[in-house]
Design goal:
By secondary structure, the protein is an alpha+beta fold. The protein has an 8-stranded mixed β-sheet. The radius of gyration is 22 Å and the shape is globular.
Length: 366
């Protein structure tokens, strides 16, 4: 299953994070000072805007009817996914509410980001001759077009029903082929009344992640952070509140890097060109509810296993984020399925929890 993430891959090297940022400041000193700001804000109740952002995410999770993941990282309800028409088994209904069309729900997020021009920014992919070839070992080149081009091509079809089906097919394919998790977050923010001066609406999480790091730096340097809503906080330094965001990274070269090392890399790159920023494959979710008595937090994100999903995450006794998200299972040692007859199978995943992500930063609503 495809994890939610930005699809762009960094092309520059990712070595261990530097100890000193471009401004010459020491990372440990910087983050200690940031932690003070984060802790002071976290001690206050969630703001009205934060509650509105959280409720918007909750409402749209229920509208989508997506997945539910428990605090042990187990998927206990498999909901509607991006390419489905409806959840129920059986033949397609003769009539269906648009809310039961997964692709239609996702297009709602893209339209909130790009308006009527959304189809221009959605990619559709194919492979040359894949629809006609029957040779499984044939290697074929990737083909690319946009949903907008496919929609224009569909207009040449004279039959209205066939034309509409082709249009919907183009959009469904684009939804599958274009990562949409950041579009979901942008939709939630816009729906909650957040403005472009407050938040960087984007199809890439990294844009508002780097903005939040810049806000933390501006605050410590006595500079005006403007109207930007979010600052970057060390993940376990402050209690998350409704309306905050938690973010993970999926850079292969940073797979073994600590959360602190990833944060320091982002901070060190603030002064450079956006094109040289190396933490690009990222994913964020909205902190939507804190169950303090149970020491649990609910986060809602888009394009999580092809759906809008709500996950229940463990908090520590002080209600700060807990990194203990590994889950409990026998792992590859307990995997006894025989190998295929045609070759060596891939190694079983060592991941026993769907909550076990490379979380590295809390974006705190200021």
């Amino acid at each position: 299953m495809r994890a939610a993430m930005c699809a762009f891959v960094a092309v520059i090297g990712l070595s261990a994070s530097p100890a000193v940022a471009r401004d010459g400041s020491n990372g440990a000193t910087f983050w200690k000072a940031v932690q003070g700001n984060c802790g002071a804000t976290a001690a206050k109740p969630a703001s009205e805007l934060g509650r509105r952002i959280a409720q918007t995410a909750i409402d749209d999770f229920y509208r989508f009817g997506g997945h539910e993941i428990d605090s042990n990282g187990r998927l206990f309800r498999f909901g509607l996914t991006e390419a489905e028409h409806e959840v129920e088994d059986g033949p397609p209904a003769r009539h269906a509410p648009l809310s039961q069309l997964g692709w239609w729900q996702v297009m709602k997020y893209w339209r909130a980001l790009y308006g009527d021009a959304a189809a221009d920014d959605l990619e559709v992919r194919g492979y040359r001759d894949a629809s006609t070839s029957t040779q499984s070992k044939q290697v074929v080149p990737l083909l690319r077009t946009t949903a907008a081009q496919m929609l224009r091509d569909a207009e040449a079809v004279s039959d209205p029903a066939a034309r509409e089906i082709l249009r919907e097919t183009a959009l469904r394919a684009a939804i599958v082929d274009t990562p949409w998790s950041a579009a979901f977050v942008s939709y939630v923010m816009r729906k909650a009344g957040v403005t472009a001066k407050q938040f960087r609406f984007s199809n890439a999480h990294r844009d508002y992640i780097y903005d939040a790091f810049a806000t933390s730096a501006a605050e410590l340097n006595g500079k005006d952070a403007g109207e930007r809503l979010y600052r970057a906080c060390p993940l376990t330094s402050a209690k998350p509140r409704p309306g905050d965001l938690i973010c993970a990274q999926y850079e292969a070269a940073l797979a073994s890097a600590s959360a602190a090392a990833v944060r320091e890399r982002v901070r060190a790159e603030l002064g450079g060109s956006p094109t040289t920023r190396s933490v690009r494959r990222t994913h964020c979710e909205v902190v939507s509810y804190i169950d303090a008595p149970a020491r649990k937090m609910y986060a809602i994100g888009g394009n999580v296993y092809q759906a809008v999903a709500a996950r229940k995450l463990k908090l520590r006794g002080d209600l700060k984020f807990s990194p203990a998200l590994k889950g409990h299972c026998s792992g590859p040692g307990g995997w006894t399925l025989p190998p295929p007859s045609f070759g060596t199978p891939p190694s079983p995943s060592k991941k026993c929890s769907l909550n076990d992500e490379k979380w590295f930063v809390l974006l705190q609503l200021r």
